[in-house]
Amino acid sequence: MDDAQSQARQSLAQYAQCVQASGLACEAVTEIASPLQHIVDYAATQQVDMIVMGTHGHTGLQHMLLGSVAERVVRLAPCPVLVTQGPKAEKASAEDKA
């Protein structure tokens, strides 16, 4: 396991602990796979109640060229999907408005 994977697992474990401490059930999963198909398949096979995922918040040409995994998960997932923007996306959005 490389450093990026290890850091991702540690970060997700910390978030999961915070969610669990508030009394909600939560499972953090990290996998090396095609994100779209793996997320949708996992949600279906594990009977997931909700998917929570982040987005980079790309817009315009960059969004058209790169697409959006989050957008496609919203369309294909067998359950509700909550998409949230990270700090970089929020900063970029604020700069666009200025």
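^ that was protein a. below is b, sequence first then the tokens
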Amino acid sequence: MPVPCHAPVYPELAAELARLGRPHANLAATAGCATTTISQIIRGHARPSAALRQRIADALGRDVDDLFVVADHVQRLVDLAVEQGFDRRVTDATVLRRVADLAPNEMGGSDAA
């Protein structure tokens, strides 16, 4: 399970909910999951399945990659850093602070490995 940090793990999802002024409960009902699930996903306490990602994107009228691809790249960077011996708690917070605002194309697009 990812270590919680202060930045949302899925910043695009958090930003979209804020932009729409949409409460977690409303999105959860539309996407067919618990309110706590949405909150846990945003905070990094849970990783959504591909099916749930799609339901969330559909509920928000967005492309799934727009909401989740940056965070997936960030998570890969964190995992690589941890494999190299960096502390996950420090790495999560540092990486997320520095790259959460990057657009997907700045991180290599959705085809990056």
